[in-house]
TrEMBL record:
This is Helix-turn-helix domain-containing protein. It holds the Pfam family HTH_3. It comes from the Bacteria. Residues 10-62 form the HTH cro/C1-type domain. The keyword Thylakoid does not apply. The lineage of its organism: Bacteria, Bacillati, Bacillota, Bacilli, Bacillales. Keywords: DNA-binding.
Length: 132
């Protein structure tokens, strides 16, 4: 088993969700979810984002990166981060409005793009906090 497969299984069972329910959410077959848990396959980036959103955890946590914070809310305990979160929220809202107005992205791609921007910001913030 990989770190991802262990954490994925742990989160699913903690949330009391069946493989079938999670497969339906991810628009995958139950066998795919089972293979994720067994470490036979790993999700594509878009599915990894969906999994992180579903369980409200960071992608870093799912992948087992050293120093990764399990829940995004844990970032808010750090000094100065609330101000950074307010800036990030404002940026993401403005970006979403611009992309909706000017872009031809579907809802899934828009959500994935925004989540990726949030992930990148949080990853940079986490790295900055480690250096302090």
């Amino acid at each position: 088993m990989t770190i991802f497969s262990r954490r994925f299984h742990e989160l699913r069972t903690q949330k009391n969700v069946t493989q079938d329910e999670l497969a339906a959410y991810l628009d995958k077959k139950r066998a795919t979810v089972s293979n994720y848990e067994l470490g036979k396959t790993e999700p594509q980036f878009e599915d990894l984002v969906k999994i992180a959103d579903y369980f409200q955890v960071s992608i870093d946590y799912l992948l087992g990166r050293p120093g990764a914070v399990k829940h995004f809310s844990s970032f808010q305990d750090s000094s100065g981060v609330q101000e950074d979160n307010a800036l990030l929220t404002s940026f993401l809202k403005s970006t979403e409005a611009l992309l909706r107005e000017k872009g031809n992205l579907g809802e899934d791609k828009l959500a994935s793009s925004l989540k990726f921007m949030e992930f990148t910001f949080m990853e940079d913030l986490q790295e900055s906090n480690r250096k302090k």
